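User: Hi! I'm working on a homework problem where we have to compare a predicted structure to a textbook description. Could you give me the structure for the chain below?
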Amino acid sequence: MATLVTGLGYIGSALVQRLLSMGQTVIAVENFFSTPRTVVETLGSVGDLRLIEGSIDDVKTLERAFGAATIDAVYHLAAQASTSPCRTRPTRSMLRASQVIEPIVPGMNRNR
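Assistant: Happy to help. Predicted structure tokens:
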């Protein structure tokens, strides 16, 4: 079983650590905008972690992620790392959060 996780922040990295400890293969998409690279070093020592570096709104990044293994589950946890854009432009931030799901859905459908 392979699981795709977008975002290796606080929640994403905890989830990945748990999945790896259960023996699952994890494909992780991370752009390292606010997540330190040391997170990957720590998680990679736990189990089969396959890192795809890039943005979730980049179609080629998602194609690499969905092509890395047969994906059985997706946890979409990537989000705006800073609250500042949410306060100054709340409508744009909410739209952005919902729009990034669109490119993920076709990959999920192909892996059924």
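For your comparison, note the following. The chain has one domain: 2-110. Strands lie at 2-6, 25-30, 49-53, 71-76. Good luck with the assignment!
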